[in-house]
């Protein structure tokens, strides 16, 4: 039900109306700057610990941040840190996703050729469908399938967070989101370890191995690293294929936002809220266009990438800290099934395209 006109309300990231906190006199209360500090400081310390451990042991930093955040979820229940953690889990997430647009290179994507591009689109579409189908079979709902399939099809944790930004907490609780992130990170780490070995056993060429790894490993760094572990040529091919998938992040998130707003049962439709594109998706697309239309200094691109990674790491940690462990236990293993189904489908389709369509 839409709030009465006399009640203060805002429209949030998920295109929903919500009642704003009032000071008791009808004025909307805004958080003071100092209220953000404890939560951001807590998330920042956890992020530094994650980065240190990742550097020492070669473990995915996003997965470490997620696990550390879950371990500190008891601290996330405090009122003093809530404002800062909520800011990190939403606003820093949006900024991090938007800045990824500068990393999309149109020339590198077009270098794949029409066969390669069609192969990438086939793998992505099949992976997305497998995630949605498996989620419905397990009774997890369409939104869980969109999250798992989209994260697997595009670029892992970054895509998962972007998709969750338009899915919203009302449609999919944070516990299932956290479990999906764990599953995607683990599946990507396993894929990076085993896919290059499979490519060698299958007698694939450098181009074929690069396509397989670039089209089926979720995380960008792990996809590129896996390609170079096969050969330098395969690494270059995997990089281009992976960039083609990353380039689809903005359009796919935009399509998902439109689909959810128009399909039956969406909260925004029930409340009569008109669909509007999330600003961070528009910013991603604008930066992608600008990055290809003008000469952006490489130092700027590198700085934007570093800032984006830091913002996304803080967002992952904050989201994990705000997750309730009892909901994680209640969700169980079922949210991992769509991730497994999508990952296996991506591997099967990418292997088929690499063997039969890539020279």
From TrEMBL:
Keywords: Cell membrane, Membrane, Transmembrane, Transmembrane helix. Its main location: membrane. It is found in: Cell membrane. It is a multi-pass membrane protein. The chain crosses the membrane at residues 36-53, 117-135, 147-167, 179-198, 243-261, 273-295, 307-325, 337-358. The keyword Transport does not apply. One of its GO terms (cellular component) is plasma membrane. Belongs to the UPF0324 family. This is Sulfate exporter family transporter. It comes from Paraurantiacibacter namhicola. The lineage of its organism: Bacteria, Pseudomonadati, Pseudomonadota, Alphaproteobacteria, Sphingomonadales.
